[in-house]
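S1.2 Input.
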Amino acid sequence: MKRRFLLILLAACLGLTACQSQTQPGNTAPETTRPAPPETEPAPAMPEIPEGTGLGLDELDAQLIAFLRANGLEQQSFTVSPLSLKAALALTCLGAEGETQQQILNALGFASVEELQAWYASVLAGVADFDSSVFGEDKADSAYRVVNAIFHNAACDGEFREAYKDLVSKVMGAYASSHDKNEITKAVNDWVNAQTNGMIPSIVDDVSESAAVLVNALYLKVKWSEPFNPSPMTDFTTASGETVQKEFITRTEKYRYYADDDCQLVVLPLQGGIQMVLVLGDGANLARKLADAEYRKTVVTLPKFEVESSFNEKELVKCLKAMGCGKMFVDSVAEFDPMFTEGIFVDDIIQKAKVKVDEKGLEAAAATAVVMMRNTAMPNPEEPAVFTADRPFQFAIIREDEAPELLFWGQICD
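S1.3 Output.
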C-alpha cells in the first residue's frame, strides 16, 4: 500500500472510533504577521488530533472529521466529503489575496498557490484515470466527476473579474454564469442536481441577496470488483443499544484484512481504483494496521445502507475558524479583490453529501457551496476471517493512485 494512501486513511480515522458507546470488536477470527481579524464570536476550539496523522491535506481531513464528531455527531450516522470542501475552498483561495489567502492555504495544507494548483491537477488526473480504467458495459454504469461552477448575482454591485474567471476555468474547469436575483437560487440548485445525478437535488435555500456563489460537485458511481450476494434480514445493534432489522449483503473473497483485540478492518476493492475501508472497533493507529493487513480469505457481511448529511448550520464555518481560517468570514476585512470588483466576504459554507451501498456497488455525491456577500450591502486455505458489520462502523471511500484522495468519510450508527 502506498505511503500516501496510508497517510490519507490515517488522517481520516486515526483516533476516531465510530459511536464509541457501541464499538467493542466482535469476532476476531485467526506565518501570518498581523493579529487575527476581529470576530463576532470566539472561534470554537478544535478537538485535539492525535500525533502522527500526517501533514498538509491529510490534516484538514482529520480536523474536519474530528470537529464534526466532537460537535454532536459522535453517535450519529453521517457522511462528509473532504474533497468537495477542499475544491470549494480552492475556488475561494484563487480569488483571495494577502492574509485571507494565506489562511486558506494554511487550512488546506499548501505552502503556495502553485501547490494548490498542482494538487487540483492531480485530482483531475484521478478522474481521467478512473474513466480510462472502466471499460465495456461497466462504463455505462460508472461515473466519477469533480466539477466546479461560479454564479454571479447580476442585481449585486460588482462582478467577477475576468482574470479570476479565466484562472478558475483554466485551473479548475469552473463554469461561470450570471443570473438575476430571482433566478440565481434555481440556477445553482439545477446545476448541482444535474452534476450529482439527482442525488443532491438542491444545495442552497435562498441566495437572492448574495453577491456570488462558488460551488463544487462530486459524483461517484462504481461497482464492486465482484458483486456481493443478498443476505437475509439480520439484526444490527445501534449506538444506543437498540436492535433493528436491516438488509445485509455478503461475499467470501480474499481481501486485505487485519484484526487485533480492539479492531477489525477490511479493504473492499471497487472498479476504477476506488476502495472502501470498513473499520469495526478502535480506529486508532490505522496506518500501522493497514500496513499489517494481509490478503486473507474473509467472509464480509455488511448492511445495505444509505446515509445523507446536510451541513447548513455554520458547522463548516466554525470548523475553519477553529483551524485559524477566520478572516474570509469578516465583513469589510476579507480580501477578495482578485475575485470581485467590489468588496465581498464569505457568509456561509454549506455541504450536502450522500452515500448509498448495495450488493452491486456504491453511489455517492456531494456538493459544497461558498456563499459570498457584499460588504455591508446585504444582511448578514484456512478458516476464513469473519467481518460482520452488524453494529456501528466507519467507512472511507478513497481514490487510490499516485495522488490518492479521501472522497468520502462516514459512519453508520443506526
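S1.4 Remarks. The longest strand covers residues 243-259.
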